[in-house]
């Protein structure tokens, strides 16, 4: 049996591209889970943004307001 090699996926470099991809992934999640609760929506949006490297660092926000 022959092994198929898959080319590595190039990293998405700009924040704008990552943000767009995260929004597309979130839209797919919403369509797959039409009966979501507010808590599920917020948790999955947070998770997806973290996976795309877009998560807000709350420690920095806390330091600025101190």
Distance, first to last CA: 62 Å
Element string (H = helix, E = strand): HHH
Instruction: Determine the structural class based on helices, strands and strand pairing.
Output: mainly alpha
Overall, the morphology is globular
Number of strands: 0
Low-confidence stretches: none
Give the strand content: under 5%
Number of helices: 3
Calculate the mean pLDDT score and round it: 79
- Biggest sheet descriptor: none
Radius of gyration: 17 Å
Helix content: 55-70%
Characterization of the model:
It is built from three helices and no strands. The chain has 66 residues and is mainly alpha-helical. It has a domain at 15-55. α1 runs antiparallel to α2. The protein starts with 14 loop residues before the first helix and ends with a helix. 0% of the residues are buried.
Please render the helix and strand layout as text.
Blueprint: H1 15-32, H2 38-51, H3 58-65
